[in-house]
């Protein structure tokens, strides 16, 4: 039976035009929601309505920039009158060896993955408090929040920070009926991972460690995010839900032969 858990709700999805974010956007719309997608992909943002339908508004926004994040929340309220859910999905990895990593390189990873989640959480929560409480925030972290990977110092450290930010926010905001949870995907078939998994030897190295024997579809991560955002998870707060086909039971593959 089709679900309609998000009828009449308003969500923001950052990174919402591609991969996991796009799957979240599609599912929210399918369940009756209205969505503002915020992304730096100008072309995709320009065609948001054609891609997702009239209940989705696209806004160009760099989630590492504080004024832009504030403007995204304001846009959701201007267009749709309220804000009910904020999905911090924008992120990505710029790999590099720790000893060679410039401070700018490090900061790029921290800004894209951790500053963005901090700013999204801050401005969504401020709006929720203005509305009198309630509201949900979902932070997309990564299995790398728990498990290091070669050349992942900036990314993995930022994602571990996202999980602690999630717990911190749940502590500070839970008394106002605001729930903040993280989802940590394993390996998901999206444009982000395509360059890796297109190389058969690299894909095989990953799959050897993933008991499910395959990558996740973005829709499987979206389903976990929407569960946490729905009233089915009304008593779940400050949690990090790992969605990885049991990969965490085996450890990260040694990809050094494939890395520069
Ligand atoms: N794909 C995976 O295997 C995987 C695994 C674990 C975690 N994740 C996390 O899931 C999230 C989504 O990843 P994906 O695989 O869907 O990637 P993706 O590259 O398909 O989508 C990321 C989106 O974020 C947007 N974006 C990038 N920088 C931005 C910025 N500064 N401001 C606003 N938007 C920005 C991109 O334009 C893109 O549309 C990321 O946070 C990623 O770290 C992905």
UniProtKB/TrEMBL annotation:
Keywords: NADP, Oxidoreductase. Pfam families: adh_short_C2 (PF13561). Signal peptide: none annotated. One of its GO terms (molecular function) is oxidoreductase activity, acting on the CH-OH group of donors, NAD or NADP as acceptor. Belongs to the short-chain dehydrogenases/reductases (SDR) family. This is SDR family oxidoreductase. It comes from Coniosporium apollinis (strain CBS 100218) (Rock-inhabiting black yeast). The lineage of its organism: Eukaryota, Fungi, Dikarya, Ascomycota, Pezizomycotina.
């Amino acid at each position: 039976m089709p679900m309609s858990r998000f009828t009449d709700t308003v969500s923001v999805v950052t990174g919402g035009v591609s991969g996991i974010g796009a799957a979240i956007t599609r599912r929210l719309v399918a369940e009756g929601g209205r969505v503002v997608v915020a992304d730096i992909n100008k072309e995709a943002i320009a065609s948001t309505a054609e891609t997702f339908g009239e209940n989705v508004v696209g806004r160009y926004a760099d989630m590492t920039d504080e004024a832009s994040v504030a403007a995204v929340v304001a846009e959701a309220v201007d267009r749709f009158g309220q804000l009910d859910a904020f999905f911090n999905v924008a992120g990505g990895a710029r790999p590099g060896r720790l000893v060679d990593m410039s401070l700018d390189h490090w900061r790029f990873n921290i800004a894209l993955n951790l500053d963005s989640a901090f700013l999204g959480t801050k401005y969504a929560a401020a709006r929720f408090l203005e509305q009198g409480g309630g509201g949900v925030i979902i932070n997309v972290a990564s299995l790398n929040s728990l498990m290091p990977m070669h050349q992942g110092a900036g990314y993995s450290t930022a994602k571990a920070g996202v999980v602690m930010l999630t717990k911190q926010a749940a502590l500070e905001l839970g008394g106002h009926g605001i729930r903040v949870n993280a989802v940590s995907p394993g390996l998901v078939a999206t444009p982000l991972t395509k360059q890796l998994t297109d190389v058969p030897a690299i894909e095989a190295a990953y799959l050897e460690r993933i008991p499910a024997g395959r990558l996740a579809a973005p829709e499987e991560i979206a389903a976990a995010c929407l569960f946490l955002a729905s009233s089915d998870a009304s008593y779940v707060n400050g949690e990090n839900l790992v969605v990885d086909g049991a990969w965490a039971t085996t450890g990260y593959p040694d990809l050094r032969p494939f890395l520069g």
